[in-house]
Each structure stands twice: as structure tokens, then as C-alpha cells.
Amino acid sequence: MSSSDSAGLSTDQIFEILSSQRRRMVLYYLRQHGGSATMSDLADQIAAWENETEIDELTSQERKRVYVSLYQTHLPKLASTNLIDYDSDEGDVRLTDRATEMDAFLSPKQRSGYSWRRHYFALLLLAGALMVIGVIVTPLFGPNVLPLLVGGILIGYLVTVGVEYWYHRKQQSTVPVELVPDDQ
User: Fold this and answer.
1) Where is the signal peptide (predicted)?
2) The whole model's pTM is what?
């Protein structure tokens, strides 16, 4: 391993790598698919993204254009900076640990500005307090108080889970920076 391999990427190297939308797409695809893929799968998906179509609707020319550019230019460039391991004979591509150096420049992990952890903790404390109050007031108002409190707590949790799921889906539907065309 040379000293350049052990040192971090320079800012110029990072910007050069990320200057190509196809290289950004490669890194995005690999990050979304467990860190490895075949070159054929990469080419198919990138061609589909670029042509705004489904993989099974691609023409052979659309596939070939992307495949050739990945094979000749983009994958060797990523491999030369040790961001990926690329076996051109087998067609296997795998992210390396060094690829994490690019994370600050790529799409952030889907992270909400809202603290769901605190929300659930507050809901837990509220549920506990309501249950204690329910036990205390049951002798005064009868046994029907506890089922109402439990039902209210369950509804609160269901609403929270529904809102969090909706928010998560909304975040997933935004186009990551890797896939935004260079001309925008």
C-alpha cells in the first residue's frame, strides 16, 4: 500500500470523482445494495435512471453505452482511488471501507430533524402516568376507566407510528443528490 493509499483523499480528488454523475450513481447504487453488485446490474440500473425508464424497457444501445463507459472510465477511476474493488474479469464491484470518506459529500442518511426517540420516551412517560392515575381513580369512577386509558394510549402510539412511517416514506421519495442530473 502506497502512502497515497493510506492517506485520505484530497478535496480535489473527491470533487473530481464526484464531478461525474455516473460515478455518483455507482456509489449510490452500491450503498443502497449492501456494498456490492455486478457490473451488469450497475449498468442496467444507471441506464434506467438516465433514461427515466424501467430496466426491462431499456434498449440494448442504452445498456451498452452505460456499460462501456463504466468499464472503460468510471469503475477504473473509482478503483484507482481505492473507493471500490473492481474485478473487470468477473464483473464484480464492491465498496471498500475508504468509500466512507465520500459520505459527507453524498446524500445524508435519512435523518429526521424531529427526535422520534424523545417523542416515544415522552409517550411512554405519559402512558405510565395515565396508568398510575387510572389505578388511583378506578375506585372513584369504576372499572371502565382503565380500558379507556389503555385504548387512548394505544391510539396515541398508533398515530405516532403512522406519522413516523409517513415521514420516513416522504424522506425516501426525495431524489438523492447522486441522481440529480448535472445540468440542474
Assistant:
1) none
2) 0.61
